[in-house]
Amino acid sequence: MELSRINxxxxxxxxxxxxxxxxxxxAAAQHVTQPAMSRNLAQLRQILADPLLxxxxxxxxxxxxxxxxxxxxxxxxNQLESLLVPSEFQPAGYRGQFxxxxxxxxxxxxxxxxxxxxxxxxxxxxxxxxxxxxGMLEDLRQGRLDLAACILDEVPDDIxxxxxxxxxxxxxxxxxxxxxxxxxxxxxxxEQSHLAxxxxxxxxxxxxxxxxxxxxxxxxxxxxxxxHSALAITARxxxxxxxxxxxxxxxxxxxxxxxxxxxxxxQIDPTxxxxxxxxxxxxxxxxxxxxxxxxxxxxxxxxxxxxVPLARSx
Length: 314
Known about the structure:
Layout: H1 8-20, H2 23-30, H3 34-48, E1 53-56, E2 59-62, H4 64-84, E3 96-102, H5 104-109, H6 111-121, E4 125-131, H7 137-142, E5 147-151, E6 159-167, E7 169-173, H8 186-191, E8 193-197, H9 203-213, E9 219-224, H10 227-235, E10 240-244, H11 245-251, E11 258-261, E12 271-278, H12 285-300
Parallel strand pairs: 3-4, 3-5, 8-9, 8-10
Antiparallel strand pairs: 1-2, 5-12, 6-12, 7-10, 7-11
Helix pairs in contact: 1-2, 1-3, 1-4, 2-3
């Protein structure tokens, strides 16, 4: 028998016919007319080269071929349904691995309670986190990464994403810094030595582009890869550290730093934060479960964003 000659509706008709041993009852069970079911039976008899049902007295009885099919068909239909209809995702029984790129701020400030909850709710999930860099979009496309929480100007067409929020910038400096007790003027901001965070996202480009539009630039005298090391150094030095507002809001007091608004002339475009993934994983139940948990953790974190709009896709 060629599979191209039979469709799913015929298999369902075959099931009802063999179950009820009645064209009328089978038609009612499948919500079709009796003539339509009669045509299905005729087509099945032709395809299977067997009568399937024969009249014996006042009843229809299965032929030996029909009886053999009845013994196999329910389980085969169950298997087909499992193949075509995804079952409800059960996190407790799932086993699998995910690679996720995030910033070091997310790793230290946002992930710990989420990881603790996932250890109880989905203990079979293995999570491997990597420090996000702008070039990692290709890793999403190639399957080396499953998710990324990052800064982007816009989400590429082949990438799905949810925008967590967008944020402005403030400047941090030591309370012993000469500028700590006065408004931060543009000329002072330019003349001072700056410390910048080099990894975990492109936080510096936005500031430097705003300066470039004024025909200016700052002197970045020191770069370090991590937020907390930058904050610790700033607390003991005379560097200026420019960071997104929500990071400043959450960590300023921990390091005893002074927060200063940036000079009014410095019009910096808000930084946009996204949770992103490749479109081929959009419908995967385990991936959906994990990204929803991570998005909730990002969205519920003690941040101070300017706005928190929802993204174009979930």
